Amino acid sequence: MRSSGILLPISALPTRYGIGGFSEEAYEFVDQLCRAGQKNWQILPLGPTGYGDSPYQSFSTFAGNPYYISLDKLKDEGLLTEQECLDADCGENPRKVDYGRIYRTRFQALRKAFERFREDEAYREYAARNSFWPEDYCLYMAIKHSQGDAGWDQWPEGLRNREPDALEAARRELQEELRFYRFQQYLFSVQWKKLKAYANEQGIGIIGDIPIYVAFDSADTWAHPELFQFDEENQPAAVAGCPPDAFSATGQLWGNPLYRWDYHRSTGYEWWLRRLKYVTTLYDVVRIDHFRGFDEYYSIPYGDETAENGHWEKGPGIELFETVKEKLGDVQVIAEDLGYLTDSVIQMVKDSGYPGMKVLQFAFDSREASDYLPHNYEHNCVVYTGTHDNDTIL
Hints:
The chain is of the alpha/beta class.
């Protein structure tokens, strides 16, 4: 069955607060999709943006971005005044997000709302349903704020290494800050799920997006260093990227820590199962970024300044996705299978049964016959006009 849709990041929605969010404009966009006969709204990752303001370098693979919380809805609930909303100054250019200014002003408004908020049954139910990740994330963010926003590898040794006495002392000292970060995640969850429900009621499915890797400075790596290729000092032994190609003579040095796939296999891929089960509560379909990295991933020595000295390592392969199907059932996935594809990657995508991606602009490379020409498309695929590496179709 064919359907079509639009990719629009939440951050790109027009609002009076300098960045898109779960405001009336989001609901109006859903209505526009309906009027245009569309069936899908694809977004970018919803996590809190870290350094570089990229949704692919998030402080958490589970948490939501507090910038998307609608201040107008908080005003309607009596948690903010109109003037306090206006004081959340968002910059002067309506076409660009001024992340620096939003960082300096948005949390001031959210703190005022937090001071007026009273926990109710809905909040307590949310806390009970989401117990496995907010504890680590909220503690990580509270400590990070107390340490001048330094990365966790720069924290005092006891906190850096999660020594029980140091963590307990931090929980006592920062308990109000912990509650503030839990409050943000509660608001995010309530507002996003209302928007998603509205979209679904109009016949619009939400296609989400999860990065294959996590940021080094994140609650995920701090709380679970055993999942990653770290040395005894919890520094990366190697990092992610791509080899030299037509886009870059020195390759791409992403810098994300790599997974210890042998450890993940020994746990029955428990962390990945939790991650994918959680995103099914957020999205109807999930695009998994850099799908070929599950077959083979590019490993670059930590400390290198380019990706030229990297090499390929074997990933978990189809075993991971067989485990997902066994434990979670038919999770709706789109495989981001772009780039140089080996026979083993092509076979893994085929064996998974997940639709891959086709990119119209890739079809017109005169150097080779193209799988991206429309008459070569298979039935089980998702077609895009371009990617972030292309100019717009216009």
